[in-house]
Write a structure and sequence with these properties.
CATH topology of the largest domain in chain A: Phosphoribosyl-aminoimidazole Synthetase, Chain A, domain 2
Order of helices and strands of chain A: HHEEEHEHEEEHHHHEHEHHEEEE
Number of strands of chain A: 13
CATH superfamily of the largest domain in chain A: PurM-like C-terminal domain
Number of helices of chain A: 11
Shape of chain A: globular
Oligomer: homodimer
Strand order of the largest sheet of chain A: 8-10-7-11-9-12-13
Distance between the termini of chain A: 30 Å
Number of domains of chain A: 2
Helix content of chain A: 25-40%
CATH class of the largest domain in chain A: Alpha Beta
Strand content of chain A: 15-25%
Chain lengths: 326, 326
């Protein structure tokens, strides 16, 4: 089994370049792709840009996910930030840090996961870097376009807006709870029985086309739900200076989540409110303008009211994050 | 002394956002800066993008450089890739990974170094990420514009072209050799006596405006010298399929480099040819079109000839890199 240290940086980057080039014939937006000092993307309008880093042992574990899932998930995490502005992914660059003794196959699988997920979002891997690091570290920087819509900020919510989410919440936290429970002695069959939830942790699949849809529908404010719904309404309330209230019963939960919660003796609402990493979108819309497929989960209130759940302060729902327990 | 773990990610990011905002009033290109899900940069043409990662202990050491220098150097490294395409830096995003016990002041100083250097290049820090990692890891992703010129690739060299460099080479490698010699028992006064070379290691200051100047002068091929001149001519020869020959005596060396080499008993030409991290530019121009300020160091030869120094195969000058000895 060859290691990255044996193969060397230049030969690895040539492999990455070849993997990116394999899928590259169809897209006229890329002037220069992977393999030069920098890539060049044709552009005729504003560029949306965001960067995110995932660290082995902290944000993912190789014994809980395949390398392809880990790579794809890093892309979802970064691309969701582009969608949260109302943008569509154009392309991205990737930096991979890993110990020299990392098997080449593992790094190629990480890269394959990133390339495949980028293409599922309609974008292209434009280049990257590979460096020696004590653990695997993935940094994905996404570039997106707005296709003529104005970017949707965190701060634009208005009193009376309806608050809505683009999909079901809590699945990633529930899936992580399954893996954690099995590690701590629960019946391993739990993982098979609740595999759709575990898959939501391993590779969340938000419909990021809802970002541009929300922007075209005139969304006043938007963000992606990476740290949990409550954490995001705190951010949105801070940014706008307005109250933001969530009706906890209205938050859509994935199938199986309530059954799993009953089995593990926890409150399913807590996963839906405080579980992160689903990367669905949260947006504030003028009443009556919420797009099809979005679920209304609350309202934007008055200046100075702050964030609440069912009319009460968010309290200990804040700050619980899916990775604080790993 | 407060640590990053005590202050927390959100409060740290608010400090970064404030540091970026302090300098942000003058630039109309940024629609949305640091602090939202993603930044938005106004754009009317192609976007040049490149990402680079630097890892503590591998690419820099806190006992050899200040945090400000380490941050600034990460920006130079990434921005040089934009210049090497003929582009100018518009802005960049930064990901910082660090152990929770890292002092807040150290991370703020790293960030300050990045912000200050970005502004020296005429760009803006657009946002970033902060994560927990076993060692300090900096990933800088730079975005640039081409201002109407065609991007200059690695592969465009033509037979008969003059090969030129934008500045003096070997200084970073010589500066590193000073620090390494002192660590291994040389007189500490060596560092003071050769401080201009040590500063070239700590913070190389290439004139990156030479990238767009070279592009406007019609450069056929260009790259930045990050891995040493010989490594770069190997890459350029590979990419074009042509011979690329360097006249070693013609490569400009910084003041003091020959004196230091004599004192340490090494060949100064070796630093100039094989020392990396200077981040000056290397380009191939049609004869007679080399811009003022560039030094002609060689020629582009015939198809199939490969890279040579003084007409001889590059041999062991290849693969020596400034960090292989740390």
């Amino acid at each position: 089994m060859q290691t990255v240290g044996e193969v060397g940086e230049r030969a690895m980057i040539a492999l990455f370049t070849a993997a990116a080039a394999e899928r590259d014939d169809a897209d006229g937006d890329v002037v220069i792709g992977s393999g030069d000092d920098a890539a060049v993307l044709a552009g005729a309008g504003p560029v949306v840009v965001s960067t995110d880093t995932a660290v082995a042992g902290r944000h993912f574990r190789f014994d809980w996910s395949t390398p392809e899932q880990i790579g794809a998930r890093a892309v979802v995490q970064s691309a969701a930030d582009i969608a949260a502005m109302g943008g569509s992914l154009s392309g991205l660059v990737v930096s991979i840090g890993c110990p020299p003794q990392t098997p080449v196959d593992r790094v190629l699988a990480l890269n394959e996961g990133m390339v495949a997920q980028t293409h599922r979002f309609g974008g292209r891997v434009l280049g990257g870097d590979l460096v020696s690091a004590p653990v695997v570290v993935l940094t994905v920087t996404s570039l997106g376009s707005l296709d003529g819509v104005a970017p949707v900020t965190l701060s634009g919510a208005r009193s009376g807006d309806e608050l809505a989410v683009s999909g079901r919440l809590g699945g990633a936290a529930a899936g992580l709870a399954v893996l954690s429970a099995v590690e701590h002695g629960a019946d391993p069959a739990l993982e098979q029985r609740f595999s759709p939830l575990v898959e939501r942790y391993r590779l969340p699949q938000p419909d990021l086309t809802q970002g541009p849809i929300a922007a075209r529908a005139g969304a006043h404010a938007m963000t992606d739900i990476s740290d949990g719904l409550v954490e995001e309404i705190v951010t949105m309330a801070d940014a706008s200076g307005l109250g933001v209230d969530v009706d906890s019963a209205a938050v859509p939960r994935p199938d199986g989540l309530d059954a799993l919660a009953a089995e593990l003796g926890v409150d399913p609402i807590r996963w839906a409110l405080a579980g992160g990493e689903d990367h669905e979108l949260l947006a504030a819309f003028a009443p009556g303008t919420v797009p099809a497929g979005w679920a209304v989960v609350g309202t934007v209130g008055r200046r100075g009211d702050g964030p609440t759940v069912d009319g009460r302060p968010v309290g200990d729902l804040r700050g619980w994050q899916s990775f604080s327990e790993t």
